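Notes to self after the Tuesday call (sharing in case useful).
The group wants a holo model before anyone commits to mutagenesis around the pocket. I volunteered. Ligand is flavin-adenine dinucleotide. Logging inputs and output together so the record is complete.
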Amino acid sequence: MREGAIHLVVGAGLAGASAAMAMREAGFTGRIVLVGEEKQPPYDRPPLSKDVLFAPEPKLPYLHPASRYTEREIDLRTGCRVEEIDREARRVRLAGGGSFPYDRLLLATGGRARRLSVPGGESAVCLRSLDDSLRLRRLLEGAPRVAVIGAGVIGLEIASSARARGCEVVVVEALAGAMRRAFTPEIALFAESLHREHGVELYFEVGIEAIERGAHRSRIVCAGGEIIEADLVIAGVGMERSLELALAAGIECDGAILCDEFGRTRRAGRSAVEDVFAAGDVASFWSPRYGQRLMAEHWRHAQDHGAAVGRAMCGILEPYDEIPWFWTDQHGVNFQTGGMPLLSERTVLRGAAETRRFTAFHLLGDRLVGATTVNDGRNMRPALALIRAGSPVDAEALADERQSLRDILRKAG
Ligand SMILES: Cc1cc2nc3c(=O)[nH]c(=O)nc-3n(C[C@H](O)[C@H](O)[C@H](O)COP(=O)(O)OP(=O)(O)OC[C@H]3O[C@@H](n4cnc5c(N)ncnc54)[C@H](O)[C@@H]3O)c2cc1C
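Result:
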């Protein structure tokens, strides 16, 4: 058993596992304990709304083989829920008894699927965990007609997977279009037409009043009085961050755990940075680049932020300053979005939407603030570099496929 300082990570998801691995890579010689309430070792969530739902024989998406935790002397405790943090004693108390001491604590508690807050809403199936996904896979088998509430990324990925399973699919969304919190209107319209082509019925600007469960089918009662019937109702209405531990311990939160660019939290009302850190989906971190706090619910962020905060816990303080970047796969089409497209005033396309392979550059004035690639992921890294450079770019050159993005980047400095 290792001796010395103890780094305790609560939450054995991607951010927590990345942090633990990064601590060892940074040369930390003390004890690392990684505690997660789920029974499985850390796994990837992106396949849960994709392959795990529709592949004939999906692989279970574990992040690392069990041997890696042993080799790196990471004490992984699964099926173990932390109930309380005792800040004075520097200990966490576990559900069902027992406790762990810590010198430095990382909260990487992520979030859970938001439930529908309408009468009968609890009957809608949600997706966040591997168990949820395996259950949904079974349910899709006996559901000829599926209704998905919410046309965000997860809702539309589920819609696409359910179509791949041969289900009839209807999607109901309160906003005016698909993925409107992430995509600019032209990309959203492209995604909507893709879903329609694949036989998904889409209803926008429709509020839900209730879900009634009949003997055979469920009935979704819409705000206008319309009724949508389905064998299975799925809610894809976002996530809620797991803040209860932080709130009870007096750590400053505002819909997320607030932390600085190194992941350090503070006690509400105090300026001193404490020995408790936060990373991944649960955190709202200070971004020096954007001069504001940001929250992200993306795979790459959970991985990179977890690793950066893990290193910070070992004394390697490098500000986390990444540009947001996520992907989604729907009906065999890969979308990647980098930067902040919704800050843009206009979009120029490199390639034609009809070819199903193009890149959209989102501009604010003469600066690139975001990019979306559609089956064109090779352009994402240069686009991120252009966003990072923050220099003026020539919009016509961006749209001209004969000009290489690397040359444009070189000119932009
Ligand atoms: C279905 C699905 C599909 C996705 N697809 C994509 C995609 O295609 N592209 C993309 O960029 N991103 C995608 N994401 C987002 C990405 O997976 C998340 O951003 C990432 O998993 C966040 O990691 P995390 O470690 O911060 O949080 P989580 O993954 O939520 O992990 C937190 C862990 O902490 C545990 N925990 C919470 N409280 C306690 C406690 N008190 N004690 C012990 N353990 C606790 C939880 O059980 C959980 O295991 C997807 C997410 C989902 C759910």
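Two things stood out.
The CA atoms of residues 149 and 235 lie 5 Å apart.
The two ends are 51 Å apart (CA to CA).
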